[in-house]
Specification:
With about 280 residues, this protein is of the alpha/beta class. The protein contains eleven helices and seven strands. Helix 2 crosses helix 4, helix 6 packs antiparallel against helix 7 and helix 9 crosses helix 11.
Length: about 280
C-alpha cells in the first residue's frame, strides 16, 4: 500500500476523538486560513452553490456557507464517518447557508450533474485512490462555465514545521516511518502534474499558483507532535512510552532550530492552488 493510501485509510477508519484532535489543533492554525485563500482564488459570491469534496470536518464548507449567505447552498462530501460527525457537531454559523453533509467517495459523488456553480477540494486530492475519476466527478457536478478550485501542498521542505516533524519521526521511529509521513499529504507536489490532471479530466483555463501563509503552533513542538494522532503513523506514535514521546518532541524541536519565541513555533506553509473551468 502506498503512503497516500495509508493516510487515506487512516482518515477513513479514524474515530471521533481522533478527528476532534484534528479539528482543534490543525483546523484553526492551518486549514481555516488556507480555506479563505482557496475560496478567494475560485471566487465565491453571495447566493452561490458550492460543493466541498473531501470536506473533512467542514473547514472550507463552513467558510463557503458564510460567503454565500442564507440564499446560497453548500454541500460537503467525505468518506470518513468521523470527519462528518465532527462537521455536523460544529456550531451553526450565524447568517450562513445551511450545509448538507454526505458520506460518499470522491470518485462517486452522491450529487446531481451540474448541481453546483463552484467545486472546491482542499488538501484531499493527493489521498484519493483514483484522482482522475475524482476530478471527473467534480467536473460532472458543475454546469458549463462552473469553476473548480483544488489545493495541494508544495514540497514538504517549503513547510518547515512539517519537515521538522518528518525529521523527528525519522530520528525516533526510523526512516520507514519518516517516509510514510512524507509521502502522505506531500504525495502530489508537482504543479505540472496537478495542472495536467485537471486538463486530462476535461477542465479548461487551468491555472496553478503558489501561495504562502504564516502558521503558529502556540503550544510548540508538543502541540505539533499531538497532531500526529491523525496521521497514518499515529499508531506508531501512540505506542511510544512517556520517555519516547518526550524524545520525539525534543527531536522535532531540534529539527526546527532555535526560536525567538519560546514555547511557540512560528513559521510558514506553502500550497499550490489550481483553478479551472468546466
Amino acid at each position: 500500500m502506498s503512503a497516500t493510501a495509508d493516510w487515506s485509510a487512516a482518515f477513513a477508519s479514524a474515530g471521533f476523538d481522533t478527528m476532534v484532535v484534528y479539528n482543534e489543533i490543525l483546523v484553526p492554525r492551518l486549514f481555516a486560513p488556507w480555506a479563505e485563500v482557496l475560496l478567494d482564488e475560485v471566487g465565491v459570491a453571495p447566493g452561490a452553490s458550492v460543493l466541498d469534496v473531501g470536506c473533512g470536518p467542514g473547514t472550507v464548507a463552513r467558510r463557503a456557507a458564510t460567503r454565500v449567505g442564507p440564499s446560497g447552498r453548500v454541500t460537503g462530501c467525505d468518506v470518513s464517518p468521523a470527519m462528518l460527525a465532527v462537521a455536523t457537531a460544529n456550531r451553526p454559523l450565524d447568517g450562513a447557508a445551511d450545509i448538507t453533509y454526505l458520506q460518499c467517495p470522491a470518485d462517486h459523488l452522491a450529487v446531481a450533474d451540474g448541481a453546483f456553480e463552484v467545486v472546491v477540494c482542499q488538501q484531499a486530492l493527493q489521498f484519493f485512490p483514483d484522482r482522475a475519476a475524482a476530478l471527473a466527478e467534480m467536473r460532472r457536478a458543475l454546469p458549463a462555465g462552473g469553476r473548480a478550485g483544488v489545493s495541494v501542498w508544495c514540497p514538504i521542505e517549503e513547510s518547515p514545521p512539517f519537515e521538522a516533524m518528518a525529521s523527528g519521526l525519522g530520528k525516533i521511529l526510523g526512516r520507514e516511518t519518516e517516509a510514510a509521513y512524507r509521502g502522505g499529504p506531500w504525495g502530489l507536489t508537482d504543479p505540472d502534474e496537478l495542472g495536467g490532471l485537471l486538463a486530462d479530466a476535461g477542465f479548461s483555463d487551468v491555472r496553478v499558483t503558489r501561495h504562502i501563509l504564516p502558521v503558529e503552533f502556540d503550544g510548540g513542538p508538543a502541540q505539533m507532535a499531538a497532531s500526529l494522532a491523525v496521521a497514518s503513523v499515529g499508531p506508531q506514535v501512540a505506542a511510544l512510552d512517556e520517555q519516547g514521546r518526550a524524545r520525539l518532541v525534543d527531536a522535532i524541536g531540534a529539527a526546527l532550530g532555535p526560536s525567538p519565541h519560546p514555547g511557540r513555533v512560528r513559521s510558514e506553509t506553502a500550497t499550490w492552488i489550481a483553478r479551472a473551468t468546466r
